[in-house]
Design goal:
With about 350 residues, the protein is of the alpha/beta class. About 45% of the residues lie in helices and about 20% in strands.
């Protein structure tokens, strides 16, 4: 009957891993500042406990892992890393660092800003787990108010909610757009109120905080959409027109998939962003760092808006070029020459 393997100590596993990494008992002894005999004795005890030979010490000058040794290396490394992670998390807790952060972000926040903040957060706080929610309008505030999320990045509410702290973290440039074949895009001039005659695609709020309120809605004909991806898709399909963050549509404008509309009474404007949290649950070190990261992005907005303006100009130039080509081809055909 085969006996059950014993339970190795953490020290035995780390000595074993050091020998495997360095390739010799003497090298492991130097790295761990121990006698070579102690290293050899520790590995021998580990082999005795597990009931398996981990190193081949006879066929080569340097110890080579056996098949069993290669299997044990992978498991021992997982155990050692797990203990290191455990110690790092406890160290963070003792220093006041959160074990996890729940963040909710307004869907209009450009993906580049979210990725920038979260990649930097992962590097700065590798032991802190992050839970990300994406919502629209008042739903962001509701998740923070209901304690589902500790920190929110939200747009304007036009109402004051007691118990919530707000910190400005910049803004988003919104512009009205439509597909190139939409009547508002093909018109030479859109008089004030022209948008009322066409379907406007509008984000809807899943919370009751902004129930009955409209933000940037001018049309009597609206389609209410639950997510920004659907709005983007329907805009490119020429279902309607609507406001979009310039950073999300600048490539579409440059490629001619969307057109920045000239509407004297509907120029979009800036959508301010605030970081919010409950005053009775202030953010810890990791969450505070995340808020500061979003604040630092406000200084980058000018450069990104400039690139967006360049994209708008490029899109308009592309449209003008196509119109010139159509007029030129029309003149050639009227003269009986090939276009």
């Amino acid at each position: 009957m085969v006996s059950e393997p014993g339970i190795p100590t953490l020290d035995q596993l780390r000595v074993f891993l050091t020998v495997a990494d360095v390739g010799s008992f003497a090298g492991a002894a130097r790295r761990l500042n121990r006698a070579t005999s102690v290293i050899s004795y520790t590995v021998a005890n580990l082999e005795a406990q597990l009931g398996a030979l981990l190193f081949d010490r006879t066929s080569t000058r340097k110890p080579q892992l056996t098949e069993a040794g290669r299997t044990v290396v992978a498991e021992a490394r997982a155990v050692s890393n797990g203990v290191d992670n455990l110690r790092a998390k406890v160290r963070g807790l003792l220093q006041g660092l959160e074990a996890e952060v729940h963040l909710v972000i307004d869907v209009l926040t450009p993906p580049a800003r979210i990725v920038d903040a979260l990649k930097a957060f992962r590097l700065e706080f590798p032991t802190v787990a992050l839970h990300l929610h994406v919502e629209a309008l008042g739903a962001v505030t509701k998740l923070v108010f209901d304690r589902v999320a500790g920190v929110g990045i939200t747009g304007p509410l036009d109402t004051v909610i007691d118990g919530l702290e707000r910190i400005g973290v910049g803004s988003i440039k919104l512009i009205p757009v439509a597909a190139p074949d939409h009547p508002l895009a093909t018109a030479r001039y859109n008089p004030p109120g022209a948008g009322r005659n066409h379907v406007q695609l509008v984000l809807t709020d899943r919370s009751s905080l902004t129930e009955g309120r409209n933000f940037g809605v001018v049309s009597d004909r609206t389609w209410r959409l639950a997510d920004l991806g659907s709005k983007h898709m329907l805009l490119k399909a020429s279902i309607g027109w609507g406001n979009m963050p310039i950073e999300m549509v600048e490539e579409d404008i440059a490629a001619g998939r969307l057109v920045a509309l000239k509407m004297p009474d509907m120029n979009g404007g800036f959508y301010p962003l605030d970081a919010i949290y409950r005053t009775d649950s202030p953010p810890g070190p990791a969450a505070s760092w995340l808020i500061a990261r979003f604040q630092s992005q406000a200084g980058e907005r000018i450069e990104r808006n400039d690139s967006g303006k360049s994209a708008v100009r490029a899109g308009r130039a592309l449209k003008r070029g196509r119109e010139d080509d159509r007029r030129k081809n029309s003149r050639l055909r009227s003269r009986g020459r090939p276009a």
